[in-house]
Amino acid sequence: MNQGKAGAWLCVILEGFVNMRKEAGGKKIRLCRLGPGALIGNVPTFMNYKYQRTISLTAANQVRVGLFDMQVLMSDFANISNTLRKLALSLDRRFAELTDRVAEAHGKGLGISSFLHRRTILPQGSKESRAWEIEDGIATVLRNVDGRGVVPLCRLGPGDFVGQVPFLNIGHEPNAAGIVGSANFRLRELDTAALQKEYDRVSPLVRAFLEHVANCVSIATMVAADAVEPVPLAEEARASNA
Question: Quick one: what percent of the chain has pLDDT higher than 90?
Fold first, then answer.
């Protein structure tokens, strides 16, 4: 699977291992290695056949995969609520954003002023248990790194979610990251109890793909947090007031 190429298939690794890489500046940056039982593909793949892959996968040894029936996948995702569908797509956008941060860290660097905003929406370490959908404005997920500064992980916009979704563990807000937003930032609270009930009754395939993307987000977060140089708190404050 090659970065930048269109793809409309999804599969599961039956045997062997593959390396997940992000290409940037002529370099191939390894994100992780996937093994038997891991899924290959993205949620948008079967919602938009013009979707371009954001990463590359290369075989580490002899690999055998099983292809999913696209009609079954499309039918399963057509039967979930619009809210859960948007949640899945938002997760995938987080993953793409995180791999972009890794690429930027190995290339031209980050445009810090485009990530930092005046308004704190959700501080890192908050005990908040709710989740919201962004209706307007732009937000950034920031991780505070041992008091040395913050690492901008990803940008979020209208249609994306922020907060704690009970069935997703991605290593972001509120425990391991915070959210800052633009002046026009506006949210709509999600019914997480209803989402949990729906998640409990969706098809195993839908659940597996949500868990797969959540795992990818978690892994990419660890790689990005190590690769991106923290912004000193004094510089953060200056950028926020710009």
Answer: 46
Contact 145, 228 (CB under 8 A): no
Note the pLDDT tens digit of each residue in 186-204. Answer: 999 999 999 999 999 999 9
Task: Compute, in degrees rounded to 10, the torsion defined by CA atoms 103, 107, 113, 119.
Answer: 20
Residue type, 94: R
CB half-sphere exposure, 46, CA atoms < 13 A: 23
Identify whether 6 is part of a domain.
Answer: no
Does residue 162 contact residue 179 with C-beta atoms inside 8 Å?
Answer: yes
> How many angstroms separate the CA atoms of 149 and 71, rounded?
47
Q: What is the pLDDT of residues 126-144, one digit of tens each?
A: 999 999 999 999 999 999 8
**Token couple for 61:** 């040894």
Specify the amino acid at residue 13: I
Q: Is 128 a domain residue?
A: yes
What pTM value is reported for the model? 0.84
Q: Using the Cα atoms of residue 128, residue 131, residue 136 and residue 139 in order, give the sign of their dihedral.
A: positive
Paired tokens of 154: 């990803």
What distance in Å separates the CA atoms of residue 170 and residue 90, rounded to the nearest whole number? 12
Number of domains in the chain: 1
